[in-house]
Prior knowledge:
signal; Vit_B12_bind_prot; Cobalamin-binding protein; four-stranded parallel beta sheet; alpha/beta; ABC_transptr_periplasmic_BD
Amino acid sequence: MVFVALALYGREGASAFCVQDDLEKEVCLTETAKRIVALSPGASELLFSAGAGDSVVAVVAHSDYPPAAKKLPSVGNHTRIDLEALLAFKPDLVITWATGNPKRQIELLQELGLPLFAIEPRTFDGVSSAIERLSILAGTETEGFAKAKHFRSGIAELSEQYLNTEPISVFYQVWEQPLMTINSEHLIGKVLQLCGGENVFGNMPRLVPRISAEAVIQADPQVIITASADGVRNDQLDHWKNYSGLSAVKKNNLFFVPASPISRPTPRLLEASVLICEQLDAARDRL
């Protein structure tokens, strides 16, 4: 469901641009935002996708896409915000990461009366919806809604293509030390499902649980995937080669995907999804 609303109301008849954020809080602006600060790399990327790049005045560390985002001033990182630097930009809208930014610092921004819009897309449609809502707040609906439509269409095409594909078991490695994965509620877990992958840890209660090597061996996935810079093969999965009995190792089904597109809830998740679907197709051919 897309939580998008554009209304005209407010004090003394002022026009208000109102949307609901991912914490189900209504955010209203009397004018479209022209000085936006983004407090996560994903938020920066979503703003540019929404056509609001020209209105972004500051970002946080690792905001590296699109290239224009790298040229913007930083106000710290997503876990430690430089509030003094942020306030110096006099933002008329701050895009927060619902579960990723420091709670107390976000509360301080609220107390100061800054308009805050929290994002945390957990579904494919949530990504499209976030783009649409941001475009409403920035007054860039034409570009934003077009980008959202393109993403929805691409995901729908993949869903149709892999609707009846042969299931294949997958372990997605988020981190090597400590060993971590994702469950089926995580957006990456939904990518695996989209491509016909069965997440061997899909039923874990936490979104990003810690697990043991023994648990992976017992699950015996047919495919192991992890992320790396630009999807370049590195040594992150080499330790699994010590377990020659693992199905994924026996069939050489150890794959890498570019880290940013698969880990950020942005339109580039589509290209990451296409790649993972292709990798799972290659793995099926080796069984």
